Amino acid sequence: MSKLSLGFDLSAVEPETGAPAPDRLIEGEPVFTTWNLEEAEGGIYAGVWQSTPGKWRIQYDEWEYFNILGGYSIVTEDGGEEVHLRAGDRHILRPGFKGTWEVIETTRKDYVIRL
């Protein structure tokens, strides 16, 4: 494969696990699994993220595009309406976004983040 091309081969990457910060957790015990496939100059990141059910507060300082690969989540901006996300849904969260992320069914997404 070209050095200028990168596929999404998760078997080639050691996944990282994590969870929401305790002060952001609202309910459940969600576990995050992240396969970081790319860290490029200029603060660009790409990969795949997965979470088990739970709900937590989110605050974005970065720009993120994502595509839901499976599962069911609800993202709600403070003072806004719920956005229901299922496989095939694509969404952008912009810097300054504040709200909640609730995973109803284990959710997997691929993403591109720009700091």
CATH H-level superfamily of one domain: Jelly Rolls
Query: What fold name stands as the CATH topology of one domain?
Result: Jelly Rolls
Q: Mind telling me the C-alpha Rg?
A: 14 Å
List low-confidence stretches. none
The description of the largest β-sheet is: 9 strands, antiparallel
Give the N-to-C terminal Cα separation: 28 Å
Q: What is the CATH class name of one domain?
A: Mainly Beta
**Structural shape:** globular
Rounded mean pLDDT is 96
Provide the structure class. Answer: mainly beta
Run of helices and strands: EEEEEEEEE
Helix share, percent:
under 10%
- SS summary, helix count: 0
| Portion in beta strands | over 45%
Please identify, by name, the CATH architecture of one domain: Sandwich
* Total number of beta strands: 9
Short characterization:
The chain is mainly beta. 0% of the residues lie in helices and 62% in strands.
Relevant terms:
115 residues; mainly beta; Jelly Rolls; nine-stranded antiparallel beta sheet
Describe the model.
With 115 residues, this protein is mainly β. Helices cover 0% and strands 62% of the residues. A hairpin with a 4-residue loop joins strand 6 and strand 7. It is globular and about 45 Å long. The chain starts with 15 loop residues before the first strand and ends with a strand. Pfam families: Cupin_3. InterPro entries: RmlC-like_jellyroll, RmlC_Cupin_sf, UGlyAH_Cupin_dom. This is Cupin domain-containing protein.
